[in-house]
What we know:
The structure is a single chain. The chain has two domains: 1-30 and 80-119 and 167-242, Rossmann fold (3-Layer(aba) Sandwich), CATH 3.40.50.1220; 32-73 and 120-158, SIR2/SIRT2 'Small Domain' (2-Layer Sandwich), CATH 3.30.1600.10. It contains nine helices and nine strands. It has helices spanning 3-13, 48-51, 54-59, 61-71, 81-91, 106-110, 136-140, 167-179, 229-241, and strands at 17-21, 95-100, 115-117, 120-127, 133-135, 154-158, 182-186, 206-210, 223-225. It is elongated and about 60 Å long. The two termini are 17 Å apart. The model has no long low-confidence stretch (mean pLDDT 92).
Amino acid sequence: MNKIDELKKIIDDSNNIVVLTGAGVSTDSGIKDFRSRDGLSNTSNIPMEILLSSDYFYSNTEDFYDFYKKVFNCSNIEPNITHKYLKGLEETGKLKSIITQNIDGLHSKAGNKNVLELHGTTFSNHCIKCNKKYDYKKVFNAKGIPKCSCGGIIKPDVVLYGESLPEKALEESIRRIEEAETLIVLGSSLVVYPAAGLINYFGGKNLVIINIDETPYDGKANLVIHDNLSKVFQKLISMDDK
């Protein structure tokens, strides 16, 4: 049995699947990941851990937004075949939830309903002075630093370096992983904590990791596939169509 056949069998035999997704899920939609040769880490002389940190946002707000608005406007980005497959899998009732490290909103745009966004989303923003909410247009269409009607600075509802993950989303992610029969990790290097550590809460039957490169958790998985995600899911869809 080849690995795609094995993946199909695991999915077919599972009734409680949770998927954990990372940046590799969205690269086929044209969004850069962080750590590859062409990733975001190679687009600036300033390390991402500084440029996208809470400290940098507050101390260098204009420079933060110069970079943020260039690379994180996902409003015209469309879901790819992986997002669409997961939407169909949710419709079957097998996929109970998607836990994502991505801030691009593509899982929701594809139509998935049960999405936990561990690192927030670029589509939601708030004023740091009065807490008024704003959509993505207010931020990405602003000249310079986006300001609230009260004069306060608008901040994206994304988790920056130095900030904690949203407590409710983290607790719910742990609960769903603990209850899952199958956990499928897609497009994550599994090196960013605490999100990567969520795997340690899984005690179910099948751990599947699909990523272009090796991860620190490959040795714990029942099935590991090192390949482009779109290729994997195109093959899976072709098998389902037969």
